[in-house]
Amino acid sequence: MEAISRLLGEASASGAQAEVIYVRSRSVELSWEKMKQYGMTYVEEGCGLRVVKDGRVGFAYSNRCSGDLVKMALSAAKASEPDSANSLPAPEPVQPIEGSYDSSLEEPWEALRGFMEAVLSYRGGHLNIISARAWGGTALVSVASTEGVDVSSSASFVGAAATGNYMGESYVGPEIYEYGDSRAARGVKVDDFMRELSRKAELTGKREQLKRTDRPVALTPKAINELLFPLLNHAVSLESVYRSRSPLKPGDFVGNRVTVIDNPRLPEGAWSRPFDGEGLPTREVAVIDAGTFRTPLSNTFWANKAGGVNTHSSWRTFMTLPAISATYLVIDAQGAGDLGDAVFVDQVQGVHTSNFDTGEFAVNAAIAWDGDGGLREFVLSGDLKQLLGGLVGLVPDRRRYGRVVSGTALVQGLRISS
User: Fold this and answer.
1) Radius of gyration of the chain (CA)
2) What is the pLDDT of residue 35?
3) CB under 8 Å to 169, separation ≥6 — which residues?
4) H or E stretch including 401?
5) Which CATH architecture has domain 2-203?
């Protein structure tokens, strides 16, 4: 792109290293709520410029790749503190991810209408559909720098979701949501998540107070995505480790029953990507191996700062500087065996109130059940080390949900307060 080349040339002429990230996405959406359906289309386009000069970093972004960005980024750099860890990476070969682009999603209306029809026509027990949504589109991401990085990737994305509850003559159950997403229209299995929604609506058709609290907890893949992913994602960041803001340190043994791999190249994963936010090739990283915290996730700056390995885990938009994040956490463990009298937890609320630096949490279990049926809300508390160390094993219902791939996890040692 000629405009990007001009930006890099102007920045280089000033004596700065420079990097441009360009994003253009087009997305369409269908929504149904309160017996009304509507659609919308939106396009996002933007250009972010990062410069490094004399160890100082400056950043500017706009909806256009204009020359003003160079002036703004260089001006911003004057306000930053110099740091020898500030530098831009050299290029490395990038391999595309097969099946990441479905050309039918350039105009996805037909697929989305099919998803909505499948959701709204679904019949199962006492399921009452409250709202439904379907979305799809395409995105182009490019990263180029004065150091020779020059990569670009086009990807598609699509998904559908529904919120529902149990509706009886004299009882209305809590709201439950389910969804599916993929890179290709064929990867969205509406019937699968609607069956899950219907099953959970029936389970919560009657809810009792939890009487015994000294019981193991079975976290569904949805609950793992909502609770474990944000806590672990923070804890395994090299920035958190370096700043002593993580409950984990490399070499810590958290329990021999769990292995966690960050896989940014998961087939059909809507968040999968061939390169990270700095244009470096993505790869699998064994974060926790047989219960031992092995490799913190990092980007260029924190790898330089902490003297660690750059795992190419930079995450950003065109409006932000590179941060660190996992893409998909794939969790493996031995089989859980007999679940006994476990309490199943499917949706939690309040994870944002957790102490991410210590890993401590106390969340509301909004959707839960046991062998006798649905359970009213209760508080589930503990910390990240307890959660990982108490993981007995996984049920063989493995699936991708949100940013995790896991089966239902049987965990002992968490506190339940009814």
Assistant:
1) 23
2) 87
3) none
4) strand 399-401
5) 2-Layer Sandwich (3.30)
Give the pLDDT confidence score for residue 97 in this predicted structure: 96
* Tokens 């391999």 found at: 95
Q: What residues does each domain of the chain span? A: 2-203, 208-417
- Express each pLDDT in 5-63 by its tens digit: 999 999 999 999 999 999 999 999 999 998 899 999 999 999 999 999 999 999 999 99
Residues whose CB is less than 8 angstroms from the CB of residue 243 and which lie 6 or more positions away in sequence, other chains included: none
Q: Which helix (H) or strand (E) holds 29?
A: strand 17-33
DSSP, res 295: -
CA distance 376 to 385: 27
User: Residues 357-414: pLDDT tens digits?
Assistant: 999 999 999 999 999 999 999 999 999 999 999 999 999 999 999 999 999 999 999 9
- Judge whether 136 and 158 are in contact, CB under 8 Å: yes
DSSP string, 329-382: EEEE--B----TTPEEEEEEE-GGGSBTTTTEEEEEEEEEEETTEEE--EEEEE
Task: Tell me which residue of 325, 264, 4 sits closest to 149, measured CA to CA.
Answer: 4
| CA proximity to 136, closest of 53, 229, 40 | 40
Residue 195, H or E segment: helix 190-203
> What is the value of pTM for the model shown?
0.95
Distance CA 155, CA 151 (A): 13
